[in-house]
Amino acid sequence: MTHAKTSPLADLPEASPYRFERSNVLKLAIAQALAGANAIVVYATGAIVGHTLAPSPLLATLPISIFVVGMAICTLPAGVIARRHGRITAFLTGTGCGVLAGLIAALAVAYGSFWLFCVATFLGGGYAAVVLSFRFAAADCAPPARRPRALSTVMAGGVFAGVIGPQLVTYTMDIWAPYMFAATYLAQALVAALSALLLSSVRLPASTTEEASGGRPLAVIARQPRFIVAVVCGVVSYLLMNFLMTAAPLAMQMCGLSQTDANLGLQWHVIAMYGPSFFTGQLITRFGVARVVAAGMLLIAAAAAAGLTGVDVGHFWLTLVLLGVGWNFGFVGASALVLECHRPEEKTRVQSLNDFLVFGTMAFGSFLSGGLLTTYGWNTVLWLSFIPIALAGLALAWAARLRRIQPEP
């Protein structure tokens, strides 16, 4: 009995699916950094190009909203491809969309076509939808005890995306004169192709026949209390992050602050969003997912409170930094909670459903924030943020009343 317990051979069947864990997680983190630059390029240039090409100034921000809609719509098809053909096929389909997005955007700028540019940003949203599943793929590569850490390590790649994206824009935007940003989009297509090469070398555990068959109906899974809590907290984290981040630069401008101040605030916001991922997984392991998510909600509430105390540049920067850290704890924690809501054969369907709900709601917030800000002001936007936070608090309290959130047997 003792020999059977200590023999390395006894552990081999369980360990072998995870033998490429370190390599896979590292590659997925690098791919996250490369692919994350796609979204930053769209956010940094989309409104400017939209304003230049749009038939009406009212449509200037439509390409960015279409990017968010594309991300929401494509999460479910990405999950279907992953379930039927494997995650790597889904990854390569997504990076293919990323390459096409860059090429079509460059063509749209060269020909002055606003609607072609909108097609490009929709495809960019499809690329971003597939990137969302990188964090769950990393969890597949690790044994259960290390899954939160693997998930958060991949999310940490977003820190480098926050550097790569702006630099890509800075160094390429004027290369192809007089077509501003056309070279940027070509460079973004090249970065997507590099990401595809890297992802093709990731070795994920093989799909099982049970996974292809699908498992329980989604309606049954979605009624689980912990899935409801995971979705609510994921929705609130991403909704408020996008809601406040979208409004903040315009609010700073309305308060007489410079564009440079706004750019620096957003840069530190992105760093605050992804920087904590280097240790969020460890916090989840040590303190539990519910406490980390609750801390995230409190930090987002603190961000809104900080914004209500004044309109100096320091108040805006503090709001954006607290918002970034709060988003990280809330979203990474909610993602880790999703891992406890499904059986192995159900993972791709459940994860894509979660992302569809989260990013579909985020698209709603993206359309809403600008109108609320210009009509009612920055303070109203901040006060409204407390309503979703209260909803997340109620969901967490409900979970606590059910004793503790346990994985399905």
From TrEMBL:
<feature type="transmembrane region" description="Helical">
    <location>
        <begin position="88"/>
        <end position="108"/>
    </location>
</feature>
<dbReference type="InterPro" id="IPR020846">
    <property type="entry name" value="MFS_dom"/>
</dbReference>
<keyword id="KW-1133">Transmembrane helix</keyword>
<feature type="transmembrane region" description="Helical">
    <location>
        <begin position="292"/>
        <end position="311"/>
    </location>
</feature>
<feature type="transmembrane region" description="Helical">
    <location>
        <begin position="114"/>
        <end position="138"/>
    </location>
</feature>
<feature type="transmembrane region" description="Helical">
    <location>
        <begin position="150"/>
        <end position="169"/>
    </location>
</feature>
<feature type="transmembrane region" description="Helical">
    <location>
        <begin position="28"/>
        <end position="54"/>
    </location>
</feature>
<feature type="transmembrane region" description="Helical">
    <location>
        <begin position="60"/>
        <end position="81"/>
    </location>
</feature>
<feature type="transmembrane region" description="Helical">
    <location>
        <begin position="175"/>
        <end position="199"/>
    </location>
</feature>
<feature type="transmembrane region" description="Helical">
    <location>
        <begin position="353"/>
        <end position="374"/>
    </location>
</feature>
<dbReference type="Pfam" id="PF07690">
    <property type="entry name" value="MFS_1"/>
</dbReference>
<feature type="transmembrane region" description="Helical">
    <location>
        <begin position="227"/>
        <end position="246"/>
    </location>
</feature>
<protein>
    <submittedName>
        <fullName>Putative MFS family arabinose efflux permease</fullName>
    </submittedName>
</protein>
<feature type="domain" description="Major facilitator superfamily (MFS) profile">
    <location>
        <begin position="226"/>
        <end position="409"/>
    </location>
</feature>
<keyword id="KW-0472">Membrane</keyword>
<feature type="transmembrane region" description="Helical">
    <location>
        <begin position="380"/>
        <end position="400"/>
    </location>
</feature>
<dbReference type="InterPro" id="IPR036259">
    <property type="entry name" value="MFS_trans_sf"/>
</dbReference>
<keyword id="KW-0812">Transmembrane</keyword>
<feature type="transmembrane region" description="Helical">
    <location>
        <begin position="266"/>
        <end position="285"/>
    </location>
</feature>
<dbReference type="GO" id="GO:0022857">
    <property type="term" value="F:transmembrane transporter activity"/>
</dbReference>
<feature type="transmembrane region" description="Helical">
    <location>
        <begin position="317"/>
        <end position="341"/>
    </location>
</feature>
<dbReference type="InterPro" id="IPR011701">
    <property type="entry name" value="MFS"/>
</dbReference>
